[in-house]
Every structure is written in C-alpha cells, then in structure tokens.
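Annual report, structural modelling task.

Input specification for the zinc ion complex:
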Amino acid sequence: MFIDSHCHLFYDDFKNDLPEVISRANSSGVKYFIVPATNHETARQAIELAEQYPSIFVSVGFHPLDLSEFSTDRLALIEKMILHPKVIAIGEIGIDYFYDRSPQEYQKEIFSLQIELAIRTDLPIIVHTRDSVHDAVEIAVRYAKSYPEWRNKGKRGVFHCFTGDKAQAKTLFDSNFLISFPGPVTFKKSTMPDLIKEIGIENIMVETDSPYLTPVPFRGKRNEPSYIPLIAQKIADTLNISIEEVGRITTANAKKLFNLPI
Ligand SMILES: [Zn+2]
Ligand SMILES: [Zn+2]
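The model returned the following structure:
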C-alpha cells in the first residue's frame, strides 16, 4: 500500500475524470492522498474534495508562487479552515527563487508567518523549495529549535520534491522533518538516487505532485497518483530492497507525520 503524500487533485486537469483517477490509483495500491492547497480558494476546493472522498486529506496555506493572493484577512480564513477534521497540515508553504514572483524577503516573511501558524495550531508543515533549499532549511530548523514543544511532538514537516544535499537532509532529519521524492527520481540524469543511496529510506516519503513532474515512461503527460509505484520501484532498485518495503516505510512515515486516522 502507498500514500501519495503530495498531489494537487483540485486542479482543472482532474475536473473531468477524478473518480477514474482515484480508482486507478486504488488499483495500483495508492489508497490515500494528501492534497496541499496553494491559497485560500484552492483550500476551499481541496476541502470540498476531502468531504467527497474519505481517502483525501488536505493541507492549507499560501504557496510561495501564490503570494499575490495573500492577505492577513485571508490567512485568518485559512486558520478557521484548520478546524475541519480533514485538514492535517499547513502547506504548501515555502520559498521559490526560481520563478521569484515576489521579493525574497517577503517570501521569507510569509513562510515564517505560516510556520508560526503551524506551531500555534500544532500541525506539521509541507514545504516547497526551488533554488531556495538553503534559506528554507535555515528558517524551518530555527523555528524547530525555538519551539521544542512543537518539534518534539513527532515528525513536524516535509520538504517536498527535495533537491538539497546530504548535509541539508541530515539537518532536517535531526529537527524531525522528512523529505519526499517525486517523479524526477526516475529521470536519467536525476541526482536524487545518489542522495537516496546516502540517506537511506527511514525519513522519506513518496509523492507525485500531480499534475506535474510525471515519472518515466509517462514524462510529458499529465501526472496522476496511480504512478506512485513507478517512483517507489526506482527507490527500491536504488536501495536494493523490495517495493513492498518502500511502501511499508513511506506509508508509516506519512501516517505518523500527518497523524492520519487510518
Ligand atoms: Zn511544490
Ligand atoms: Zn505541490
């Protein structure tokens, strides 16, 4: 069994065939879905899906590429949504210097503000980085150190689509954060397998980031959660363990991180 720890099933890409997408995923062993919103509107949409599908859980927050949608009033709306029983994390939050849509200092400020929300509400975080792992790790770890009660509660967050190095991964693990790997782990030139070899499987999860980052051999097409076994198989081959073992450990990690009632 697998959990897709990061898939944006609220996007229009899935508007016409979500029931089929879910049932295809179920057939390939993917039984639960963590759906991270990107702003207050997609948070509303994600919660609607979670009310329709028992297997969908939601995280709420403002994505670093969606900060034009951000306001303190809207963050207050997000904070109210946390009361919903299917909301299990704050995210996706973070920093993105690749597209650099908002000033770097502003991105760091709103990232910090949302970590403070997670600490206040005792939830884990789902972190997005692009060309920004160094700053995002620094901020998240600083908060983990300043708030030991939050940090020591269990696993406290995930850096998704992780592209940092071994030292950064180790720093995150020491502060009770996990990392997750998507489709690009299957790409020929990916450096992710080298990193996975160095860090092992204990602190990792699998994700599709659907509809983006489609794994080989479907690269270029829409991504969907039923492709999780392709990612898990690559990790299994990399570590010379069985795909069942990858499923068992990554599922346990996701259950523990998000405190899933399953
Ligand atoms: Zn992301
Ligand atoms: Zn995402």
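The beta strands are 2-4, 30-36, 56-60, 87-96, 125-130, 157-159, 177-181, 204-206.
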